[in-house]
Amino acid sequence: MDRLWSQDHPVAVREVLEDLQRERTLAYTTVMTVMDNLRRKGVLKREKDGRAYLYSAAVTREQHTAAFMGEVLAGSDTTTTLLHFLDQMPRAEVARLRQALDEQLKDGRGADQ
To answer: Measuring CA to CA, which of 34, 43, 86, 87 is 20 to 30 A from 97?
Structure first.
């Protein structure tokens, strides 16, 4: 996903493969299968370009991270888990989070609204 989030245009499997092969050897079919699985899960979208497909991110990195965090929190005591998470955050990040939450509440926005 990092490869697709860093692009400003849709990319072919071959382009992702060439980029990944700078670090390790992978088969074209492996990259194609992973990208198609991500498309079926709604994380990538694709468009036909001749005989090939071009892929792009269907969600932002932040949207994906938030959805992942939601899945993780669903399997635990949310309040306790979030408190442990806050304990690990730098004070400046906690302050930014507090400010964002205050703005959300002030605007009447939230998941249960």
So the answer is: 43
Contact call for residues 5 and 17 (beta carbons, < 8 A): no
Closest CA to 68 of 56, 77, 59: 59
Name residues whose C-beta falls within 8 Å of residue 53's C-beta, 6 or more positions apart in sequence: 12, 13, 46, 47
* pLDDT tens for each residue of 28-66: 999 999 999 999 999 999 999 999 999 999 999 999 999
N residues, the chain = 113
Q: Please write down the long-range contacts of 8-12, taking CB distance under 8 Å and 24 or more positions apart.
A: 9/56, 10/46, 10/47, 10/49, 10/54, 10/55, 10/56, 11/54, 11/55, 11/56, 12/49, 12/52, 12/53, 12/54, 12/55
Name the β-bridge partners of 5.
none
